[in-house]
Records
---
Amino acid sequence: MAERRLQVTSRLGLHARAAANLVRVASRFKSSLTLQRVDGNAEADAKSILSILTLAASRGTDLRVVASGVDEQEALDAVVGLFSRDFDETEKPGAGLYSATQELRCKGLGVSDGIVIGRVLRLQEGTREVYRALIAEADLERERRRFRAAVRLSRRQLEAIKDRAEKELGRGHAYIFDAHLLFLEDAKLTRDVEDYIVRERSNAEWAAKVVGDRLLSIYTHINDEYLRERGSDIEDVIQRLLANLTGEGPKYPNLSEDAVIVSRDLLPSTIAEFDLNHVKAIATDAGGWTSHMAIIARGLGLPTVVGLRDFYQRTRTGDQIIVDARSGEVILHPAEPTLGEYQTNVHPPAPAPAVPQAVDCRPVSTLDGVQISLRANVELPAEFQAVRDFGSCGVGLFRSEFLLSRPGMMSSEEEQYETYKSLVEAAGDYGAIVRLFDVGGEVGPDVKERERNPALGLRAVRFNLRNKPIMRAQVRAILRAATAGPLSLVIPMIGDVADVRHAKKVIDEELERLENESASFSKVQIGAMIEIPSAVLTAEHIAGEVDFFELGTNDLVQYTLAVDRGNDKVSDWFRTLHPAVLYGINRTLQAARDASIPIIVCGEMASTPAYAVLLIGMGANDLSMIPAMIPRVRSVLSQIKAAEARDVASRCLKLATADEVEELVREEFKSRWPDLFPPNTLPKALENLQ
Ligand code: PEP
Ligand code: MG
């Protein structure tokens, strides 16, 4: 046995690239090579990168190198030599991807308020659960082969990525994939996974997850910021393996105190599942103002910037970041002066529109006496309290599908009953409207079964009619909770009167069953969400069969203009003021008036003051929006005349393009209400799309 004591002198300690070089050198020898911290805290196998990193050997750490075997002296000399040459790093650590600490500013779309300084937490899209399966004794060998095949596939992918990175970014930026390759083939990972498969008779996915999570937890506890961040590399590798085994994505990592979630895209259900005490802000590559993710983030008051295109790939977990949702900008690796500027500026998510002391929940009156009800849209039980605080006439829309926050999990009838009961209690005299689960599309209880074209697929009422037990449980919960106060039910994405009849048949059957069971329940008003063109065009028929309409302008824009509301690439085509959308709104309002049924406008349009004025101009008198926007909309509407709004709206309805409508709105609003609508509150002129 031969041993030597030495000290880590390189600035970044025994970091990933240095460790990779050490593994390469150590692996040339037959002898075992061990690194021991002199403080006795840890010991590592010098041939395993995963093991070396757990030493958390930062600069100044004293280590003992112990070699044992036929070539122990040569092995020891080679390792000591490597330490003295600072691990043969050809590039200064500062040149690599990790230390790419140059300030980087990216412009996206701010969809809420607030400025936050925090640390990046990368979250990959397509998150799915990994399930455990018990494998028959006879199949264990096949399971191990499946795992090895996934390792081989991952290796090929990583080698291809490394080659490309080398060509496009240079060697200094590609080294990290060497480290990923070493992680992937490290016996600490592969042997442990295979052992676990056999010992626990476990499927490969579960084994990889268990072993991966154990490794990750070691890195999360390392007391050195730089080395701790390497956890994200290991996570990348584990996720790649899992993806290659199953096509599945990652689990949620533990959230640090000041986590800024950076993702390509986020499922709304993922946000609903966050620990909101820890998540400080969100930045995503995809998304638009009306994507569900944005709506929820806004409702929760989380500073959020979407539409950042390729920002995700530029970040690493642990990077410092500023999210400025006011200007729609994110700043990665902010320089000192930028930080200084923002530190004095940071303000948490907006309780911006101050909550009045004595909140007025009554409808607001325009200057010429038209009464407008302002209600709240809520997504999560956590928001129920805000309903009264902001002076809402009850809850105009409860997006109940966010109760289904865990993939594959349905909320039971009993759980729903409790939720709807507390909703109706929070809503007060004006009551609440629960929407039947609008799952499918971008929201879904089971992301595993994503459809090719989800927005046009088994969404909303279609999902309900194809999943009757789920629908029945929700209907029963609503009918039972209605005994606690005024509660209504609205059916999402109605296509025509046939959809209404089918849904009402189920509701009637559940009413009858409850009656037969002598359960305590109340009949409820039933509404239809009008949000797709076929419903607009047959609105008169639908109006004859329901108690009220809700106008979902978010989907109405999406489906009328055939523009995906969550796709930032087409966000320039998502034109709320497109004349086709305005005709649809106008026609639906007219159909409700003709049938003498109430109609509530509940898309994001209602919460945008300038658009709210146009809605009033087309005859709307009931708007539902994010609670925090109610005071602002209330204030604007109390200072205009409905007659003037009607004049502007009727002129808009005569125009041919969204550009023309927006131009007219800018001009008219500027001259009629200059104090109410500063230019930044009006639609901006788009640059020529050509
Ligand atoms: C809408 O489509 O406008 C609406 C209110 O529903 P959601 O945004 O949940 O689709
Ligand atoms: Mg909708």
---
Amino acid sequence: MPILVLPNTLDASVEKLPDVGTVNARRLAKLGIETIRDLLLTLPYSWDRYTPSPISSLTPGAQASVVGTIVSIKPITTQRRRMRLVEAMVADDGGAQMRAVWFNSAFILKQLHEGDRVALAGIVDKNRFGGLAGMVNPRHERLGGDGQAQKVGGLTPRYHLVEGLTARKIAGWVESALPLAGQLEDVLPVEVREREHLLEVAGAVRLGHKPETDEDFRQARRRMAFAELFELQAAFALMRASIAAEPASAIPYQQPVIDAFKAGVGFELTRAQRRATWEAFQDMSRTLPMNRLLNGDVGSGKTAVAAACAAMTFAAGMQTVVMAPTEILARQHLHKFRTYLESTYPALKVELLVSGLSAPERRRVRTSAASGHCAVVVGTHALIEDDVEFANLGLAVVDEQHRFGTRQRELLRAKGSGRPHFLAMTATPIPRTLALAVYGEMSLSAIDEMPPGRTPVLTEVIEPADRDRAYTIVRAEVSGSRQAFVICPLIEESEAVVAKSATAEYERLQRDVFPDLRLGLIHGRMKDKDEVMKRFVAGEIQILVATAVVEVGVDVPNATVMMIEGADRFGLAQLHQFRGRVGRGSAQSYCLLLSDDPSGAANERLALVANINDGFELARQDMRIRGMGELMGPRQHGLSDVAMHALEQPDLLSEVRQEAERILESDPGFERHPALKAAVARRLELTSIS
Ligand code: ADP
Ligand code: MG
């Protein structure tokens, strides 16, 4: 045991703890754990409590542990799927046998041998084993002399993990950090804690990591969830107050303007679009700056809503700026805004500002914006970097808002003389409760309806052994002059590794599967991503191989196949996002989900995507599943799963909100609550909330 050198601050890197080291610190960082404070505050998402059961009494679907002797253990390759696994037969003291299989885990053969006494823990599965009880990827432990299981029996914490970490390792590091728990500042004011009957932070951390009863764990989690949501809501309350302090120019509602817009836009607005437009107009007609998030599926028609707002702004004699994350998206916006607006309002000029333009062209656009000659400027980061000035900015719009940091959005807003109204758009459907929890400073408009005339995308879960069938579909579509995406699996590795495996997949497909077709590759490490997307949009690339890190948020109506490798590793909402990239035209499109994990649970999740087409509904399902902690990565939407889980309780959020507002009212700026003040500041800095 190395000598414990305790760093004296919670803000120190986890690397300072014994036995962590740089490599593990990097792994922990992937889980959002960078400092010792983070480590302490990240409770296990659940606990396993096992007492061994006789094999004869195992019930399918239930979690169980078994103690027995290994009768045989060997590597096998399945015939149908050609997958490599390790298979063991285990007999318990009553003589009953069960089977255990591990996928892609050849190392098991080094750890367990015939004749070993073992404890196994996992979910009991009967269907896959021809009526015999079995476990897929059970946790295992070889038992020593006393026959007592250490990690498989008893109470075992379950922490979220990435490659290279085990719950046991994390538990060890937490153990060495626990003496510091007493230094944790409590963000919850005493009065809130008392009113809500919540534990103090240090106590909650100790109980949460090392509970003796389920009730301990429940209390600890409740306290941590409440505090996290409270911190966020306090931050939002502060933001709302600061936004309210600086007025915007009112943009009066004018009926003829919207009438003309509707007549000229070229289609009938959906009910959801009309409602969102109306909500935005109401906000804009006030001097309290609008701060609204437009949340709607890919293809739900958010741009038309933004364009209607730009028209109203123009009619009030003011300008609109629209920022998109990539040049190609900015160009698509330019095109849409022009189509939607320029024929109806001949004096309304829409201009583009991206870094790819020539210097004279950029100068011309800057002049046009500064003189007030053009009403709408669409662009990328270049809008901020180029120091564009507006004569009279009334409205700032940000598309794919999660792609921009707080500072970038602030800089965009600072382009007006007063505070412009602000409209953010996101294509990630979020259930309302979750949205209120993580975007609490914004008002929400949900576009939960698709324009008519779309052919729903046919979604199919394809077994890895049937991969050839997926390729046949891709080939058939491409032969019919269509295009396809192939998304590479999400891997928990460095960008370099991701890029490398995507490159290998691209080369394999080009060489072995589609030698006669034109393939392209796009990944996060490439400089000319925009260039590749342009070639795909232009049809020069027929099949685009992309890593999951590259958001392909671009309109390519001619693309009709979205093939996703390793689909089981993605969240449902994310799969839905990918699917939204096809089916944009009227032709039938396909989404093919290939899963590496043949377990029932994974297939069930994927079946949800296949059966549900509504992004909001899928997001709710995703949240339900993720709320349970399983499979989910850390801090989706900047929220821990402990907090996410707590949100399932219907009144919690409004309670938290009230408490936060109450404190802010009695203590504007949180001066009398330094721990809260610091936590709020950290939030505002860290999260991408605007
Ligand atoms: P997103 O919400 O993903 O930004 P877009 O605004 O790009 O969606 O709209 C997707 C496509 O649907 C565009 O081609 C747009 O012109 C079209 N569209 C938008 N609203 C309607 C509607 N109400 N009826 C028919 N087509 C529409
Ligand atoms: Mg869009």
